Amino acid sequence: MKIIWTFTLLMIPGVLSSISVTGYSGGGVSITCRYDRGYTDNKKYFCKGQNPGCSDLIKTKEKDKWVDSRRFSLYDDTRAAVFTVTIRNLREQDSGTYRCAVDISLYGDFYTEVNLKVVTAADCCEKSISLSAAAGGSVNISCRYPQSHSADVKFVCRRSGSDLCAEETSVKESRRWSAEGQMQLYDDREQQLLTGIISHVTQQHSAEYWCGVQSDQGHKSFITRVLISVTDITKTNSPPPSSSSPSSSSSSSSSPPKSSSSSSSASSFSSVRSPLITSVSKSSPSSFTSAGAEVQSCDSWFSL
């Protein structure tokens, strides 16, 4: 009889766990919520408030694909029995209690309680920076973070559509380089400064990136947006097309511009202190860029 009673208690829907997440105004958060593998076919949703007044912000039965609803995105990874909720363009009024839940319907729902706190970190961190570089060179990314996150894992993510962290490079130790692909990261915890270097850049590196921190529970806080634009110097330095008219053919032709060999050699990591950056600008946007958008001026990125 005791065994049956214990089993019955375990089957009662309700709160599975409670987590706390800190986000930053203008940035974003990525919240991971686990569920029992027996509920992979059930709807997953994210709501704000507490029962009976928890208002749905996003709800879906889609599996293994991103689903969007305004500033919210949800991805249900059925293999890992985890669904991830991303909130973009955070505001201080987003602070509050949320639930990421599995819709059980008849018996009520299993959910994880999420306590979100959104703060402004204007005294420490840039909301957005823009970098330009020539193809073949290097890009140097510098992002500050609040002292409260000194011990957390730091990362630089490349955004792809709804996924703010489609490609990630992270560093777990202070003052030690961590490399993945063409990106190297260095975390100076005493200075609260994360440095990233991308070498041998091409136009494919033109994209939206994010500097951020990850808690020991796996939740990510995206703090600074980095917009990178890479210019193909072979196109910008190409000579103008010659005229096909008879009069122009008799005139003396000018020699094409000489290509600079120094720009191609700038891709070496030995030049970390002075990477090939042609321009740097800073701004404070109010939203994220639209999915798949090319890097443009900061004002045109806020379509969500």
UniProtKB/TrEMBL annotation:
UniProt keyword annotation of ATP-binding present: no
Source organism of this protein record: Cyprinus carpio carpio
A Pfam family assignment: V-set
Protein name: Ig-like domain-containing protein
Localization annotation: Membrane
Region (Disordered): 233-304
PANTHER family: CMRF35-LIKE MOLECULE 3-RELATED, POLYMERIC-IMMUNOGLOBULIN RECEPTOR
A single Gene Ontology CC term: plasma membrane
Taxon lineage: Eukaryota, Metazoa, Chordata, Craniata, Vertebrata
